[in-house]
Amino acid sequence: MSRQPTRSNAWAAARPRNQQVHAYIKQTLSSGMINCAIQGHFRSGLSSRCKDIVAAVGSSLVLFDAEMSMICEAPVYANIISLDTLAADSARGSHRASDKFPGDMCVVLTENGHVSLVYIEEICDGRHRFRLCDEIKPSCYLDQAPGDMLQPLRKIVNDPHSRAIGIVTWINSFELLLLDWTSIGGTLSRPENTRPLHHCVGLQTDIGEAILDTAILVSSDPESQRILLVAAIVATEPYQQFCLSLYETWVRRSADELRSDPSLNLLENLPLPSHTTEPLHIIPLPAFPECFLLLTYNEIIFVSSLQILSGDVFLHRVKLPETNDGDSDPVRAFCVAGTTFVDDKDGRKDRDSLRSLEELSGGSAIGSASPRSLILSDQRHGRSSNAMLVQKVYITLHSGRLYRVYTSSKPFIEVTEVSADHLETSVGETGAFPAGDTLIYMEPYSDPEASGDRLLVSGDCADHSIILVSEHQTGSAGVLAKPTFCQQITPVFENHCPVTSLILQRDRAYWTSGRATTASVQQAQFGHFVRTETILEMSIDEDQQHDRHVATRLWALNSIEVPGSSGGHDCVNKKQRISKQLSRVVLHNECSGVPVVEDELGSWKIDDALQHAVSSPDIVLVSDLSNKNAVVSSTGLLRIFRHRIDIVDISASDRTDGSNEHTEAVLASTADGEVFVHGTCCQIGSKGRWLIATAVHGKAESSRVVIALAQKSREKGFEQIHEAEKVIYFDAEIACLRAFVLGESVILLVGTHSCKVHTYRLDADATHKLEVSFDIAQAMRSTFKPQKDTTSDDGMDVNIESAQLLQIESHWIPNDVYLLYAKSTMYILVGLRDGHMVSVAVSIPNETQDEAHPLVLDTNTTAVGQAPVSFVQLSDQVSHRLDGQEATGHILQAGVLTDSLYIACLEDIGLVRVSACFGKDEPLRPIHSLVPIAKNEAKARIWRCFAIHRDGDASVLTIPFDRQCYLHDFYVGNEPRQLVFDDDTGMMLVAGAIFPNSFSPNVPPTSYLQVLDPCDGGQMHAEIRFHSYEMALSLVTWHIHGQKRYRYICVGTGLYMEQSGCDNLSALCSRPKGGRLIIYNLKTIKRKGRTKAVPSSGQTSSTSLDQIANKGGYELKYVWESERDSPVVALAPLGDSYLVVGVGKICVVLKLDVVQKRLIECCETPLRFPITSLHVRGHDVVAGSQREAVNVLRFVPAQSDDDYDKLLLQNSARFGVNTVDACYLSDSIVAGVDNTGFLYAVAIPASNSEFGLDRAFGICLGTECSQIRQGCLVKRMRRPGHVLSWAKESQTNEHDDSDKDNVMQPEDSVVVSTVSGAMWTLVRISDQAFALLEELERVMCSFDCGHPAKPLVAAGESIDRARRKSSLQSSNVIDGTLSTTFLNGLALSEQLQVVASSEELRRLSLVLDIADKGVDQETAPQTNERIVQIICRLVWTINYVCTC
Question: Is the peptide bond before 498 cis (omega within 30 degrees of 0)?
């Protein structure tokens, strides 16, 4: 037998079913870092002075308005290098009809070599989206041979007149693309075989030369077809020096001319003097045609094309400001602002510049204003005729300082610093001005005459802000006054870069953010953020301390208007009061009911007018009956008591004396021994009838529901329609009751103590018909897992399932029921007494199917809390969708109240999303009862609710419609690097670095360890400082289990050589000299007062440290330390009493002797390359490596006194990546991330296998990753069918009874953080789901550029993010961004086009549908609409797991 089949069989035996794992990844939180941004008129129909901003945020394009409020976003499946604007108003000539274009266009350059032309399209209801017009690849990428290294692209160079686009590389080539506007129609569709972008000419310098920067200059004659190009080049002949090269080409109209005789003619070279430093940027000046600023490493030089042609080397130069140490401070970013006039001390005006500026009216450069308006504005303000036109340019330096540059064609250059010394920034320090890579001049839109320039700036790891810079001032001599002040700083976009450490704790995430003075620990929560508007101490009774006097039930009377309750009685004021719909709430306890009303000023008081009507303690339900559209206007108050039902007529027309006596109409009464226990009412039909249903409980075992109709007549007022009374009998006591209007009928939901829910449909005459009934106990038994009792007398396992069922079934009684309905989708929500919520999907028959009955399609059980679950009607029957539009007759949202508050929302896709509510400014207090008050406006997008808390207090809360991610900062003050949560104390431990800065320039680098309280706003309780030139590199909590349980804080540090000018970690870590493992104990201070911390040997203590140490009752007590030859880069607890330490290339296992207080080194194993991370699962250890991806080791403890501990290397990965973090996903799967953004997983073969680790899946996220963690940010929820556990070996969606109740566990999802601040969630999916979504991606990428399904960067290797890495081909991972675009970004007609274009997509959808329903079940007809529904439900379900 040959060896190859033997190895194949052995390979299959070593890894039976986990060789390939299918996964789905979705971005949970986008990056807060703006890479580049542009401004323009991207949306049509806006004011000419109102410009939008398109920014590259992470791997997405985001459209902001002028106040940086997000309008829309679109994913780009590659890193964005550069953006530029094609101004629609700058394309001149008869071929350009501006009314055919919606607005300016955006040019996007990505790192994979795509140049995309993108525009903004308005779809409906004021919503917008990005659309792809055309895309093209540079010639250097098209001509690339297989295996050749691609030339790295640098940026886009835009023609100010929108005739061409230039692409600059980092090496020695440049390409010009001509823009053919005739190929673009009114809807940006183009004729067949025509394209807007065309390859025109290219520039290739000699070998050894390099293009440093390139720009297209502003033409002196905009109607001319001449394009003038300038390039800064490193020349090699006759000797190496910097020079400026001037080129020209001509625009040709027809496509034939575009392909014939392309040329880029060299006009002249201008060698720069030898003392000129390296050129960095070329800035064309819109106000001065064919002129530009050349920014070198330490200078600003004014250059014109005439000087290049004439060989004039005597250029006007100005030195850039230097750093405090006297070093050069080169330019980091720049933007061209507007123009202005300043007094010319020579009494002259640059008339040539003004004449040229007249010809350039309507130029496209950002910040260039109309010259005609500038001149008129100058005349209006009465400026002197001796004025000089200057162009304003803003620059940021590498030190973070911001400067304004004035320049003119005289030439003249003036540089002034923009200072913020008189302002207090967001971090609380005066003068700390954050300036970085993003710098945009924002034209004024509200007040054109406002003094000052608005700039969007981004800081170095700081928030993005809009600043207002003061206008220049002129002195008596005509020179510019110094300094220039920043008048205002407004943070508008939060940046949480860099993220170096991440922890997932319950329903929230924490990560380190920022550097230096902007550093903080950020807390993220996903859900609805409740704001407490008012806190009320309701004095219902003097003896309120007793529980029986605390209000426990609430009813809202929002449509009741009682005359005389709010002041005067005149008709005018009465109408005003009714139109405002003042909120009234009835609070009820065991003693009485109290009505309260909110006045026009927002204050709450007792409503005396309704006090008598609702004061009885026997009230079961109070509801308002108001129908102003009926023939007879009705205003009534329904009261259900324990023994009778009546309606109080409180219409204003019934009473003129102002008395509090009301007309009562008794509808029903109970017999002896019977009581009303539940009630509900709703308006039915268009005749002004009200349906009232009550649950009656008597002495017998059976209960009944009595249904009655009431209506108001002119003669008798409110009265019951006696012939309409109906009775429904039940064999068990009724537990809950609710009625909902559904079209012309009413749906009545009844829950009983027999754990059943019955659904009835009632018509206008209250004739009822049983629709569907379902057993809650049967649904709950499928999730209930019996336990084993191992303590029986005979020593045998005894199944106590029956005993447990008897004990637990009492908690499965329905506590409340609710109905969500939209279109043809209906969900019945059942809240149980044990904290579970059951959602039942029910089919709705067509109107033509008279005899058909609804069917239970699906049942989903979710554990939302431990207290009984009740529901809150948040809005009227006319609900508001998430887009703010009204959905008449639909019930889309409900409040879910248990231990916490949740919002259940019926999505457009037909599935229910349950999102948690959190306190925005402070923790949300436990709520006992909640009702909405007043009318909730869709424009406000909030619900106002009145709440009774469990402590008896009342409050008014506002709950937003939208679910969002709320970030809360805990300010640290230095650069945090490591983060750990201590479960024993609830404290957060932060280790970070301290580097010298402008405030403390002489402080040597060191590091710290802090104890913060996340529940107290990040209050610091203790702090420890380490040696100078010592950095904390790793941090863990170590639990030791023995006769006693111990918990220690372990810190791994690195010691480095002393060096001057070291202000970052990378520079410091280049010269290591050793490390330490330091162990602390976090203890509670028992005695009062402040206890001074005693530093250990080698640690420093300062006066400021003594003042803050041990504050709040905790102290860090030094226990032990161990010095090492290399930095301690990784730590991980192992087993009950061991600690794994990564020291350089060696993995060491230590044990702490708690009796003798010493560390014992048990064993060690050297690896081939330096260790980067450690993770433990049982006795298995995975070590991340710089070159070998991951190494899997196994710890074997000593079995006897003669034996010894061993750490054995089991397997290593066969591909080389620089892993920064790795962890176990299951016993057989290990995942890791590297410093280039590659996420991978390897499968571990069986024990004693000769085979190494091989990749199971992989995908490139495009940016540097920092950490990978198992966990999720949601409560326990049912795992969807096609989302699998990582521990499963089967790739199908079949449910396993041993799968932990089929509930999502924290280890089922993986969260990956990037340095830029993005968060990605990874889950495992089935084979059927992967095949369907993979085909969906292929089909969407196959469309032409004009189709909205086409991605903005449309190439196969772009969607498959890692195919640009030849050695690490991406496989078995779906990037959910494109699938989400199909779900949320396309209209139904566009989705149908995608489905109709692929027969394979239809087939795979059928396979998925069969897998969901079972082979024996009959599937629905596979129409295109049905296929779209299958795909959307699948994508929505997986996204819900990833992001909810």
Answer: yes
Is the pLDDT at 293 greater than 90, yes or no?
yes
Q: What is the 3-state secondary structure (H, E, C) of 597-660?
A: EECCCCCEEECHHHHHHHCCCCEEEEEEEEECCCCCCEEEEEEEECCEEEEEECCHHHCCCCCC
pLDDT at 550: 67
CA distance 338 to 331: 20
Q: List the alpha helices (DSSP H) in 1212-1346.
A: 1327-1341
Statement: residue 393 has pLDDT above 60: yes
Gap between the Cα atoms of 224 and 234, Å rounded: 31
Choice between 762 and 1435, residue whose per-residue pLDDT is larger: 1435
CA 692 from centre of chain: 45
Dist CA 706 CA 695 (whole Å): 6
Token reading at 551: 């209000």
What SS3 state is found at 1121?
A: strand
The SS3 call for residue 308 is helix
Per-residue model confidence as pLDDT tens digits over 1070-1080? 678 889 999 99
| C-alpha span between 495 and 1317 (Å, rounded) | 8
Q: What is the residue-wise DSSP string for 394-426?
A: EEEETTS-EEEEEEETTTEEEEEEEE-TTSB-T
Calpha distance 1279→15 (Å, rounded): 26
CB 75 within 8 A of CB 1262: no
- The answer to whether 508 and 1323 are in contact (CB under 8 A) is no
Rounded CA gap, 942 and 317, in Å? 58
- Identify the residue with better confidence: 672 or 310: 310
- For residues 154 and 1264, give the distance between their C-alpha atoms in angstroms, rounded to a whole number: 19
Quick one: what percent of the chain has pLDDT higher than 90?
18
Of 457, 463, 439, give the one whose Cα is nearest residue 514.
463
Contact 271, 255 (CB under 8 A): no
Q: Phi/psi of residue 356, each to 5°?
A: -65, -35
Residue 250 φ then ψ, to 5°: -130, 145
Report which secondary-structure segment, H or E, holds 306.
helix 305-310
Say if residues 1386 and 123 touch (Cβ distance below 8 Å): no
Structure-token pair, residue 652 = 């204003």
Check whether the bond before 238 is cis (ω within 30° of 0).
yes
The percentage of residues in the chain with a pLDDT greater than 70, rounded to a whole number, is 71
SS percent in the chain: helix, strand, coil, step 5: 15, 45, 40
How far apart, in whole angstroms, are the C-alpha atoms of residue 1002 and residue 996?
6
The answer, yes or no, to whether residue 354 has pLDDT greater than 50, is no
Phi and psi at residue 571, in whole multiples of 5°?
-65, -35
What is the arithmetic mean of pLDDT over 1300-1320? 81
Those residues whose C-beta lies under 8 Å from the C-beta of residue 541, and which sit 6 or more positions away, are: 549, 589, 591, 592
pLDDT at 1101 over 50: no
Tokens of 686: 């268009």
What are the backbone dihedrals phi and psi of residue 51, each rounded to the nearest 5 degrees, phi first? Answer: -110, 145
Tokens 């991440």 sit at which residue?
502
Q: Tokens in use for 514?
A: 């920022």
End-to-end CA distance of the chain: 55
CA 459 to chain CA centroid, Å, is 21
Distance CA 1122, CA 1048 (A): 15
Give me the sign of the Cα torsion angle 924, 925, 929, 932. negative
Name residue, tokens 């290219």: 202
The CA distance from 591 to 622, in Å, is 16
Its pTM stands at 0.84
Phi, psi of 13 (to 5 degrees): -70, -35
| CB contact at 8 A, 495 and 885 | no
**Which is more confident, 263 or 509?**
509
Q: Is 866 left (phi over 0), alpha (psi -120 to 50) or beta?
A: alpha
How far apart are the C-alpha atoms of 715 and 649, rounded to whole Å? Answer: 13
